[in-house]
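Purpose: get a first structural picture of the assembly so the mutagenesis plan has something to point at.
Setup: two entries, given in the order below. No constraints added.
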Amino acid sequence: MSTVFINDIEIEVGPKENLVQAAERAGVEIPHYCWHHDLSVVASCRMCLVEVGEKKPDGTIAMIPKLVPACQTPAKPNTVVLTNSERVKKAQAQTLEFLLLNHPLDCSICDQAGECYLQDYTYKFGNAHSRLNEPKVQRVDKYHIGEQIALFTDRCVMCTRCVRFTREISGTSELQVTNRGSMEEIDIFPGEPCNNKLAGNVVDLCPVGALCSKDFLYKKRVWWLKTQNSVCQGCSTGCSIHVDQEDNRLYRLRPRENELAQGSFMCDEGRFGWKYVESESRLFGPRVGKLQVASQHHVAHVGNGSHASGNGTMVSHAQVALNELATVDPWPKVLDETRQAIKSVVDSGADRFAVVLSPMMFCEEAFILAKYIKSVNKRVMLALGVVPLVGEDDVYPKGPKGEPPAAGKAKFTIRAEKCPNRLGVEAVLKHFQGEVLRFETIADRLNTNKLDGMYLVGGYPDAWLDESMLSKFDGLSTLIVQDFLNSPLTDRATIVLASATFAERQGTVVNHAGLAQEVQQSIRGATDVRQDGRLLFELSQRQGMYNAASIRTEMAKEIPAFSAIAGEIGELGIQLFNTVEGKSA
Amino acid sequence: MNFEPVLLRRWGKPNSQSLETYRADGGYTALQKALAMEPPRVIEAVQKSGLRGRGGAGFSTGLKWTFLPKDVQGPIYLCINGDESEPGTFNNRVLLEEDPHQVLEGIVISGYATKSTTAYLYLRYEYGDCYRACEKAIQEMYANNLLGKNILGSGYSLDIYLHRGACAYICGEETGLIESLEGKRAWPRIKPPFPAIEGAFRRPTVVNNIETMACVTQILDRGPEWFQSLGIPSEHPKDPGSYGPKLYCISGHVNKPGLVELPLGITARELIDQHAGGVWKGRTAKAVVPGGISMGFLSADELDTKLDFVGPGKAGCLGLGTAAVIVIDDQTSMVDVLYNTCRFFAHESCGQCTPCREGTAWSAKILARIRAGQGTLKDLDTLTDISNSIGIMPGTTICGLADGAAWPIKNALKKFRPEFEEYITSGRRSQSFEVAGSH
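Result (structure tokens, whole complex):
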């Protein structure tokens, strides 16, 4: 630790911090564009120029005559920093004037407006007017720069964050600077667009509106968006994310910086992979009884959080019944019948019934369901659902030939395990079942006709059972499926419990490294869709309302493995288990 | 003054590029002397001579060498900066075309002194004749054990690689040169670390100028005392003095443009009148560039400024630079001169730092507008402001290009402001151009 003085504020700073970070600790903002803590220092935007000196042991201060970039200057002991002197203010205003010279000032049609550092800094540190009498440099926008990203060339401030990202983090080096001087532009090599799996991050890194996400482009003014903390469900890395929503619609996911989890970034699979939340295949309400019309198609649609009717050819008796009850909550009746269905199978033989907990579930949900089932009958088998594995872990930065980095050099990993909470659900299973039974155990019992009924939780965004496996479920007299998407399995189900996606739920997931993080509810979801937690809460006939924090407290008391996460667990999460894999990128 | 050229003594002699004639004229004795000394003694000799780098910044060469870390494991690199692109400068070109062995001998001596394992001779692409002369000379050296393994039986080994740039001014900045040498875009690096600690290929590196290398050869040959006997001694303790011979390039509106070698400290007036045949067409000099366009302008009253390492600074210029004197006669418009200057820097700005990237282009555009008769007096204040922001306020950019772009603007507007004002006011009348709301 060393002591530095920022505008007379004395502050302790850690090792290897620069003056931007030191000032931040003191609550002083030093404006900067090119510097980013995860990228190399280039000190080229010259926005962070400050006056620097040293406080001598005798109390005198010796200032360096020239301005220095705060991002490049380490916060050594007794450094004195002035961020608000006349010279600094003049340099800041002048740099902003330079940056705005050829900027089109098209804020009114720019996606970045509202979260733009050019706007913010100009407001705080800039001049209200430009002295430019010359025509601005005209540049051609590059919509082709990537499948997910577009470059509005004239808005660029040449901070080169995006270029450094593709060189240092993704290792794919698609982006580069072309031309020289004021004619410089960010560009790709002809025919080699920036399509790496981390490409979306350059949009977040861009401090201005130059790089925009095509997915989000012109969809929503950012100041309308409301943000919740969440965790990406795409793989077991469990990236901390922000979920941006407005009026119950999701607009975008953004990485939320968390050194305990993934760092500062997220992959495009996660970033753009949330569209199933608005899928036309969403289940919008529960169903009791088998489908009358055999169909692999949708029973109903959900879009914009409102109801839409099915396409007419696929109406079950239950559907008709539910339509009659449109103004009445269908769930008490459905859950009653679910409990009876479970009971009747279990009564005929506890080992004829099995419950499958999905690794897509949150810890609290798995806990409530497991606890309930074991209270019905201790001998009912609890197993882990299918753990989706796709390929191998995808580790960045890539080498020149696309090879993964050497051990210990990883900066980001997209994991092959495409579920967020295997470890958490396994901990629940270990407690209630004593061991983690794999889905193969269930499959074996299905094959040998040892099961009559099953309660199966899905929650996978993609198809996860193949055709040959599906037909095995036909022999079951009771198949209760808790899921949010229509699937061949829900078609076969005797009871369908329409549950929610991560954006509509609240709970805890444990990532590959044993880090427990909370997913917050961002949107409400359709009226007759039950959040999984509440659904299970009501199924198990608990009193009161489902609340993740209070369930965690209960869980922490009962299961030693969860003792660290009683109640609130904070934004960054809590290290719950020490896995073999340990903490890594 | 009668001065017998030393660095240029072989210029114009028949076959002066060949090893044979170089040896016949006493070449490579300096190297033999150096190899007989311990490397630190060589550095001491160069330090004692007071040699300051001839590339522009004028930093003490011997002192620069001592910044290399002690007891280095692995390679040390010596980069020789032959990216001579400062407008008006051609001394390196003459040295390399006419007498490459003198420079190459200096490189081997410097390499020995700094314990470098490899030397890179970075040449601007346009210098094709230099390239061919050096290529041939290096071949001769390898064939005669003056390069390669165990040079002249001393146990010291050195390889020299010729590297051609791709026509960019910025590659003359030492870290820009290193980046370019590494195959990257020549964006100057932030310092620290300085090249002596982490330079080419992240190894300790020394970057020196071509003329500096020729001086090293002569210092070892004739002794530091000879070098010290030429030039201007230190005036005060902080000034390391201006010693030794210097190659002055003279171009522009003179009767006899060319390259002359003189002890440091000649005045601009002496140089023009005695060595360049005076200003052409019987005119007088309006302005003189003291050392490459980036150093700014001397006005007609300042022609008695001594062209040593401190003189131009005293007259409000940036420094001696490359000692490339450009004479501008009284019939030339300073607006045109400054426009040309600003256009050059706007074109050559590498575009890394915001102030330089935007400021150089902006100033060129303003001057273009003034020349088109659409300037306002306010523009002159804006230009002054731009020059203050891009280079004159210290620390605003990574490298010195912005300083070089700012100084001509600052000098021109300070020393020739009435001419600019006259140009604008008369031009406005003649074009009957009025900017609404101005004044």
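Chain A is about 25% helix and 20% strand.
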